[in-house]
Amino acid sequence: MNIFKRLFRIGQAEIHAAVDKMEDPIKMTEQGLRELRTDLTEATEAYAQVKALAIRTENNQLQVQQESKNYAEKAILIMQKAQSGQVDLIKAEELAREALSLHKKYYIESEELGLQVTALQQSSREMLRNTEILRENMEKWEKELRTLKARVKVSKATEQVNKQLAQADNNGIVSMLERMRSKVEDQEAVAKAYGEISREKNSKKEELDSLLKDDSLSIERDLQAIKQKLGIS
Fold first, then answer.
1. pLDDT tens per residue, range 37-46
2. From which residue to which does any coiled coil extend (predicted)?
């Protein structure tokens, strides 16, 4: 496990990918985060193991301390028995020496275990701190990765639209539309001209009919018809 090496790779991904078009920064970052998740799991397990070992070692130290204390008390007790005449003095001194020897042995062992406990507790605290830092950084990087993915989608969509617009212009669609607009305008102008010509012809015809029309002749014919019907000469 090399957490710092992978952290370095994550940090370098965005920098190098911006320069080297052959590498995908998103894929590199995703791969780095997958590796870091594995490292985080392993680091958490290692912290738990070190913490448990520190607890066991401390419990063992307490037991050894108690053994050292017990043998010190036994040495005093046996000499008290010799003092009261319950045990032979020479025998009591021999047993007391043995008890004091075990007391010293367990005392030294207890001191050594104490140093181990201190070291293990220090290691567990450092591992916990580093694990928390790694977890916080992963949350930050995962959030940045989601933002990066969203930005990539937007940029790709924008690029595609702009590309289509550029291709449309290159294919002459804009100029074709301009020509079609000009042609339609010409046709509209021609239609308008025919309409005006037609209205002018109708106006002249109506004017001519109005000039040629004589209502007096029609009245006279109607009057003669009435007179004939009535027999008036």
1. 888 899 899 9
2. 26-53, 124-158
